[in-house]
Amino acid sequence: MRVKLVVAYDGTNYCGWQVQPNGITIEEMLNRALLDLFGQQITVTGASRTDAGVHSLGNVAVFDVETRMPAEKISYALNQRLPEDIVVQDSCEVSEDFHPRFSNSIKTYEYKILNRRFPMPMLARDSYFYHHTLDVERMQKAAAYLVGEHDFTSFASVHAQTNTFVRRIYDLSVTRSDDDLIRIRIRGNGFLYNMVRIIAGTLVQVGAGILEPADVEQILAGRDRELAGPTAPAKGLTMVGIEYLPTDVDNSSEISENGA
Asked: Residue 217 region, left (φ>0) first, then alpha (ψ -120 to 50), else beta?
């Protein structure tokens, strides 16, 4: 059977999602836990291959296994074998043709910025500390230019590998809470390599007065990575979750790339 996992993790101590030779990854830890549980080599396939230091509240992965264990019980068994900073939130059986990366979906990410005079230790692992005052109203105005379907070449890493840079952003909000956390929440049908972090870095420059809100429209139209702001640090980024849609719902452009 094919089993879907919803996985939350603190990415601080990992070299991203995908297995690689230079460090421990989330995928590797899941594969190890599955080997221990079922006694056979099993490789998970993830929906988003998040970068080193990026967190998740609900990344999705699948694997195939022959077992009599009910799919909904697998989450409990895996959590007994995983470290505290990786927790499977749910497990269930899905159809054999379900693929977490290529199925029709909407993905939500959140980038957090701690904007105050001094850092807060409890927030150091999952937010970007920026001590100069940021104008959230300016950031909101700038964010509005990015909503809709656009060519996001200016907001993608030069290392992005894709057939098209067109993506559709459904919602992009910038809010500030009483604890001095600015949250940039973005919801779209797919994200290019480093796209969310480059958007966040650009909006920080708008909030700091380095760029004007209307400059974002010109950056988008320019289709040149050098026009946009810096790539914000990975630790501020969290994958919030993935909503899978019926196949007859139009959500076209292209499926997401890794490392948003």
From this structure: alpha
